[in-house]
Specification:
372 residues; alpha/beta
Length: 372
């Protein structure tokens, strides 16, 4: 995950880090200054087996006693242990028990990428299949339960938007800090969008998570019902298996992963940020801003970034409203150029990873132990 990788690198500017991750023998992790990697080889179980456990699917896939033992051993002498993402939140309570007899146990800090219980309930509400709705409903209950227990058992917590931090204040009375993602990628030079810019619209992002596939399908359904893809080129860009949606919505361009994304984005009039499902911070929105690609976004997708509707992006009430706005926006060059320049200026001043690392380092230094 990009957020996890950059958070690790930013904190490593201020302190040495032991990073524990899943990996196979001989694998070489990415080099990060001041970071020592420890890899644990662990086979992932069949996903359907999570139905018979108390863990949500994402945590069941990452559960393992070998990984827990390695984490406890790596924690000896550490000031803090960061448990990153709900997939590893099952570790919080057993690590807390393991630390009881230690003279100077490390702090346990959980890193929340979303309010997972809320996100999964959104998925349940959006699902049309009764069978899948039931399965997702069970998983949502498990995820919310694990999330609550982990955040309440930790010494401190990290959220990546102010809205998420507010929800966690209701879930757990623990010290918290908002560490929004920042940007470490290239910054595009100034460009002017005009009549020679192709009538191309992009929907950027990977489709590996279930809720991201749901977002894409709901977006294509809304755009297709308005016939937008018959008038303009709409590219689906990012890693994923598109065979199923391509059969149902053949009028879109399924580009997939691009090695030269920066060059491609210079040929786009604007991008869509259509995430009605899924909380947290959308790093893709930062990519659009720093690559000077105007954004047409539903409001829920950019909450917490500090962007102002109709100043830094064009706002749609929902996906059907987004489909209606596209034809009028695609030739509104003054508006497109104005919002992309405003978004770039806002984000250039607000999203620096070094600042995030300093903020996180200070949070650990100030965080009291829950047992104190």
């Amino acid at each position: 995950m990009e957020y996890s990788r950059e958070l690790l690198g930013s904190l490593a500017q201020f302190t040495a880090i032991d990073a524990l991750a899943f990996g196979v023998p001989g694998e070489t992790p990415p080099h990060v200054d001041n970071v020592t990697w420890r890899l644990v080889d662990q086979a992932e179980p069949p996903r359907w087996m999570s139905l018979a456990t108390t863990l949500p699917n994402v945590a069941f896939r990452h559960f393992g006693h070998r990984f827990l033992s390695a984490a406890i051993e790596a924690a000896r002498g550490a000031d803090a242990v960061f448990i990153d993402f709900i997939g590893l939140f099952w570790m919080v309570e057993p690590m807390r028990r393991a630390f009881r007899d230690w003279l100077n146990p490390p702090l346990i800090i959980v890193v929340n990428h979303n309010v997972e219980g809320d996100v999964r309930r959104q998925m349940v509400d959006a699902e049309e299949s009764p069978v899948m709705k039931a399965i997702l409903g069970i998983d949502a209950w498990k995820a919310a339960r694990l999330e609550i227990r982990a955040n309440r058992s930790a010494d401190g917590l990290i959220a990546n938007t102010p809205a998420d931090a507010h929800r966690f204040e209701q879930i757990a009375e623990r010290p918290g800090v908002v560490i929004m993602p920042a940007y470490a990628g290239p910054r595009a030079p100034p460009r002017i969008i005009g009549p020679t810019t192709p009538e191309r619209i992009c929907i950027l992002g990977n489709r590996e998570a279930h809720h991201k596939r749901m977002v894409l399908e709901r977006t294509l359904q809304a755009l297709s019902s308005a016939g937008v893809e018959r008038r303009f080129a709409i590219d689906i860009v990012g890693a994923g298996d598109y065979r199923e949606v391509q059969t149902r919505y053949p009028g879109f361009n399924y580009v997939g992963h691009l090695d030269n994304l920066d060059d491609y984005l210079r040929t786009v009039r604007f991008g869509l940020i259509p995430d009605e499902i899924g909380g947290g911070f959308k790093v893709r929105a930062l990519t659009h801003a720093f690559q000077r690609v105007p954004m047409l976004a539903v409001r829920a997708a950019v909450l917490g970034m500090g962007l102002t509707a109709d100043q830094d992006y064009v706002e749609a009430r929902d996906l059907m409203d987004m489909a209606k706005i596209i034809p009028e926006l695609i030739e509104d060059f003054d508006r497109l150029n104005r919002i992309k320049d405003a978004a770039f200026a806002h984000c250039a001043a607000a999203f620096d990873w070094e600042q995030r690392g300093r903020q996180l380092d200070q949070f650990v230094r100030d965080c009291p132990r829950a047992s104190a």
